[in-house]
Amino acid sequence: MYQNQYGSRPSPPLRIDYLLSPRQRLNTLFAVHAISSVFIGIIGYTYPSLASIFFLTENDREAGVARVLVRLFSCLIGAQGIMIWRARSIDDGEIKRAFINAYFICFLLMSVALIIEHTNNEGILSGKSFGILKIMAMIGLTLGYAWFAFFQPPTVFMLGTHSGAKSY
């Protein structure tokens, strides 16, 4: 690898063929998941009333409970986004495999729970386009992590990361 005029290696290109290359697929999945999680965590904590797009409440007390729960879970979502971002620079394949297996199970169960709640149609979850988008996002994350959990050889987890992955 060559060095630039400042003596450091340049960041890798952000071309789609690079991001989806076999050496970068896991890093790309982690990066997209991390950035999305931090963004959702910040928005959910700052504006918890936006969750009314997904969840319906019948009175002010339910809205208050929902607001607190949205803020609490937004903190968790944002924090796990930071964990995933930092996991990109871990060189231990077993730790990365543990992240992948845990997220596969998490998103699979979340997808099943959302589908069950939407099909029960008790009026708690909004079934409009945002509700469908929510289910599609969970299924997409499930499939992304399933790909690495079941179809990737163990060497994929051992591949080194590019120089930009260690930035905190």
TrEMBL record:
It comes from the Eukaryota. The chain crosses the membrane at residues 29-48, 68-86, 98-116, 131-151. Keywords: Membrane, Transmembrane, Transmembrane helix. This is Uncharacterized protein. The lineage of its organism: Eukaryota, Sar, Stramenopiles, Ochrophyta, Bacillariophyta.
